[in-house]
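Z., the sequence and structure:
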Amino acid sequence: MIDRETDIANVAADRPPLAADEQLRRTLGGLLASAVPQFYSLVPLEKQRLHDLLGNSIGARGSELQHALMAGAAPFSLGIATWLPVSQLRSAQQVSTVTLMRQIDRAEMGEFRRAVAAYGEGVEPIDAEGTYCSRITVAAEARGQGIGRALLHRLHSDGGHADVWLHVSADNDRAIAVYRKAGFKFASETAYRSRAMVRRGSIV
């Protein structure tokens, strides 16, 4: 088990330790992509280019990655979580999607737009207050050590102890079990492909 306070830090691409470490940014970008594979598989970019783009977007104002927490000490990362207020989610998703679109060839843009629209129809909307965990993932070699739980604990603290919301793929039984163990419950019984879960009150 890692120490919740000393081994988790706020990070951004333009600040140390990420600013001077291209490989660490790329590694974190890869972790972020692995957190929502169904979405990022729609992006017509070469994998390393996508990872670089995501890594360089960590901490970008107005985006889904505007607040980021890294578990582990540079140059290594054990996991990452990103968050924002739920009230900013819709605009942040638009900013993040536009950032991706700027890197996509015009010939592939129409198909990408259609794919994103179809993906969005399967995501359960959240109409509430609180903190939204936009990405959370732990490196494969570090799983089972309480790192995800520690990231959620710190995210909850940094978010002002508000309710914490997130989305999970309806068929991702492993992730659902982890979130349930951390106190999350499904927000509704609707059959979205990407379902909303919420943890009310403090995370311990």
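The CA atoms of residues 1 and 189 lie 34 Å apart. The beta strands are 8-10, 67-71, 79-85, 131-138, 164-169, 185-186, 194-199.

Let me know what you think.
H.
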